[in-house]
Amino acid sequence: MSVTTIDCAQEPIHTPGTIQPHGLLLGCTLPDWSVAHVSGNVSKFLEGVAPVGLLGQSLDQVLPAETVHAVRNQLQTAMLSGLAERLDCLALDGGTRRYDLTVHLAGGLAVIEAVPSMPGAGANGVTLLRGLAGRLRRTATVSRLLTLAAQQMRAVTGYDRVMIYRFLHDDSGEVVAEAVRPGTDSYFGLRYPATDIPAQARALYRRQPLRLIPDVDYVPVPVLPGRGPDGQPLDLGLAALRSVSPVHIQYLRNMNVRATLTVSLMRGDKLWGLIACHHSEPHYLSGALCSAAELFGQMLSLQIDVREQEQEQHRLSKAQSAHDRLLSAMSPRDTVFEDLGRYADMLNAMIASDGLAVWSNGQLSGQGVLPPDEAIAELIAFLGQKPVDRIYATSSLAEHFAPAARFADRASGVLAIPISRAAQDYLLFFRREVIQTVTWGGNPDKAMQRDTSTGQLHPRHSFEVWRETVRCHAQPWTSSELRVAETLRVALLEVVLRRSELIASERQ
Ligand code: BLA
Q1: Measured from the CB, is residue 414 less than 6 Å from ligand 1?
Q2: Of the candidates 220, 207, 339, 213, the residue with the CA atom closest to the CA atom of residue 283
Q3: Coil, strand, or helix at residue 279?
Q4: Residue nearest atom 38 of ligand 1, based on CA coordinates
Q5: Atom 30 (ligand 1) nearest CA
Q6: For residues 27 and 37, is the Cβ–Cβ distance under 8 A?
Q7: Which of 25, 104, 106, 449 lies 20 to 30 Å (CA to CA) from residue 469?
Q8: Residue 244 CA to ligand 1 centre (angstroms)
Q9: What pLDDT, in 10s, does the model give residues 129-184?
Q10: Domain 330-435+472-507 has CATH 3.90.1150.10
Q11: What is the ipTM of this complex?
Q12: 178, 164 Cβ separation under 8 angstroms
């Protein structure tokens, strides 16, 4: 049976019915703050308290007044932010132990989670953030920034391996920076298929920016009762202690990873990537250090955003000035139609290409590496099916237009700018094939299997490096090139219009 990305995305990971055992969870109905859910491990943290005894009690009877007060206030913030909010170092009973709390709203219930505080742990968090703020601001490139961030994160949290994992256009991902303990395998540069982190998990990581799994071999603790008054299991989507999908647990075991921390990296409201940390032994981080790691992720996200915007802006303004030069050089009597060669350098300064051509009045004139003559008519017919009022661009023409596989070496990428409304005229940029070797962390075609007797999904066992040769792909057109192409389209239409007016007036 073939297993697809959709199969993986079906698992309701937000309602596992259990939590990880390193903390406790309470769910209270509102507005009366009566305990409606409790994790089966409360007696481990609160002496002499049995889980069932708590159900139905008011939170005031369970926790000290000061803690209840702080929790109530923090729930207000959580309701506004739609996220889980943290509270550090609070008492849960009359004893001396202190806990780090998170509070959020789920299905109308207030969900409170608590993990033991670690004295002094906050200091490391400050180090982490200070290091980032100071040094990272001064790094020029994104890749240097990411490597420094991985090193900084590893130095403070002590994980064996800290990776910056970046999502690509097809939701696969790549390890783009890494810091490892000497002797630990490197995953730098490896690609992983989209199914490794399915859609519902990516959606959760957008809302819940930090996930800690201190020990993959944990015994899950049930949340009692299994279903609430509405007959539904408690939604643990925003719960820090949420039990991890068994498929993912198996995945980590297959990778020989015993503990992880994952922090989301956002660009706008999109999940740009993850900081993914691995350890070969159980590894726990205090709530204070988790807060710092979460903030570190947010600061790094902003730094990535700033740099990517700067790069984009730089490319755009270079292209924009080439665009202006081109238009001031062109007159209605002398356009790209009359003399493409004269304008080729200016065009390529805007949008780099291996071949440049104009298709006008059923004829192609061009220069550089172009598709073979006999393929042109068919290619133009294919382009003719696309809307005339926008540019068309692909870096893998053969995927959309099968005959292109025959001339992939000459033109795997095409950017077509329609420059007249009635007749089918185009300015065409071509890019040759760039044969790529993608190094996957395990064969992506065998990323998952289904157990035919139980119907359950399993991740792959082997993460052995697997090389794939990708053909029929050109260097992708960047978003700034596409924006420039669109402005060029509008400007050329204008020039073409003036040219036809001129020709018409001369005929009279
Ligand atoms: C979750 N998979 C994840 C997560 C990562 C990865 C980072 C986030 C959860 C976490 O650890 O905190 C994948 N981890 C990686 C990758 C690297 C890494 C790519 O270190 C690279 C170095 N996984 C599968 C298959 C399925 C699957 C076949 O391989 C589905 C059938 C599912 N992965 C899966 C699920 C989750 C997940 C369901 C969510 C786990 C959870 O949050 O409960």
Answers
A1: no
A2: 213
A3: strand
A4: 245
A5: 8
A6: yes
A7: 449
A8: 9
A9: 777 777 777 787 888 999 999 999 999 899 999 999 999 988 999 999 999 999 99
A10: no
A11: 0.96
A12: yes
